[in-house]
Amino acid sequence: MRRLRRLVHLVLFCPLTKGLQNRLPGIKVKYLFLAWLGIFVGSWVVYMHYSSYSELCRGHVCQMIICDQYKKGIISGSACSNLCDEHTLVFQQCLSPSPTKQVYSGVWKGKAVIIKCGITEALKAENNPDTAPRRELVLFDKPTRGTSMDEFREMLLNFLKANLGDQPSLTGLVGQIITMADVNQDGKVSLAEAKSIWALLQLNEFLLMLSLHEKEHTSKLLGHCGDLYLTEKIPHSSLYGTEVPPFLRPLLPSAIHRIIQQWFAPAWPRRAKIAIGLLEFVEEVFHGTYGVFYICETSSANVGYNAKYDFKMADLGKVAPEAAVRAFLKGRHCEQNADCTYGQDCMAPCDKLMKQCKSDLIQPNLAKVCGLLKDYLLSGTPADLKDELQKELQICMTLSGLASQMEVHHSLVLSNLKTLLWKKISNTKYS
Fold first, then answer.
1. What share of residues in the chain are helix, strand, coil (percent, to 5)?
2. Could you name the CATH architecture of 246-427?
3. What is the dihedral of CA 72, 74, 77, 83, to 10 degrees?
């Protein structure tokens, strides 16, 4: 880091001397200036990237807090012993999107995994030692000592009803949560086991993983310790196979960004197979076992695929239950449609007369996904398919989120797209 600062200092404060310019008569000053500017910008980007690394990547803090609470008997989980005693759960590459959401690739019992952990309270404690016990009290405060199993089941059921809606299938989900909490499989749930599973349920992505665990297009949950949890690692966590690093995106024109994405994207038949999987996922969350779910950040960076080019939802944290979206919109004051936005792009219309948000979303999942697939599929499309595919995608992108259009119309459009793509790649090595 010291060498990098010295380089930046030299670039900024040591311009070319007249003697050097005289020795290089063939080079115009403006070209030297452009070279100097390029070096400066490059140095600034590298400096900013590495200076932010220490803030984003706090895996050691997460591990320290979790293991401390595990050894005190406050938390439990199927991965605690591996993380804190046997050290067979190892943090590797930092993938954290923010300091409060720690994401790492890692190895667990010789298998590649993704490790996720939230350390909001831990960061506060690090800055102020007097607040150190606060995370234990705030995060792992429920259930309290003396809570019976029947009361805990009721707690879980009421929580699921509030977050997923009053679904008749929730009783079965409660049973699965109890089974997951019972780490030692003794038929009982200890206080530490109950506190750990309750803390995990407060995390949107974990709740969604449980709700959609039967679906083939979601990452599998592998284990947990307190509010740290492990999922299977998806080899390609972006629709295009790779993404431009976030610190470089502001420097690249959108046209260059698209060219880079298309360059690294899989062959068209494989893209078609991935797209079919994404459309199947939209179908699965439209009427799932535990209700309806909305994709509230439709981005190529949130969806990926495995080594067999089967689609996998890389980040379920961007998916929201219908109950949560409706609760957010209910009675919400608005001046324009943008005021009625849940997440990044789950937008409802604003009733300009009543100054309140309506409950139906402007764009359903399918329309947003088709917008994402437009550039992805139309680049390199076989000539005999391109016109028809473009027409179907255009129809799909104009779909409305009104409840009256959500059933038959959406199902027909989705079926047409899947059939069109499948006919082209069926009976080939890509199917």
1. 55, 15, 35
2. Orthogonal Bundle (1.10)
3. -30
Longest dimension (CA), the chain: 87
Residue ranges of alpha helices (H) inside 141-267 are 149-164, 170-181, 191-201, 204-211, 254-264
Outline where 214-344 has alpha helix (H): 254-264, 268-286, 322-329
What are the sequence ranges of the domains in the chain? 58-119+142-232, 246-427
Contact between residue 428 and residue 269 where contact means Cβ atoms under 8 Å apart: yes
Handedness of CA 331, 333, 335, 339 (dihedral sign): negative
Contacts of residue 4, Cβ cutoff 8 Å, sequence gap at least 6: 43, 46, 47, 50
Per residue in 299-323, pLDDT tens?
Answer: 888 889 999 999 999 888 889 999 9
> How much is the pLDDT for 155?
96
Tally of CA atoms within 13 A in the half-sphere of 375 that contains its CB: 16
Contact 213, 221 (CB under 8 A): yes
Q: Which residue has the tokens 């311009």?
A: 15
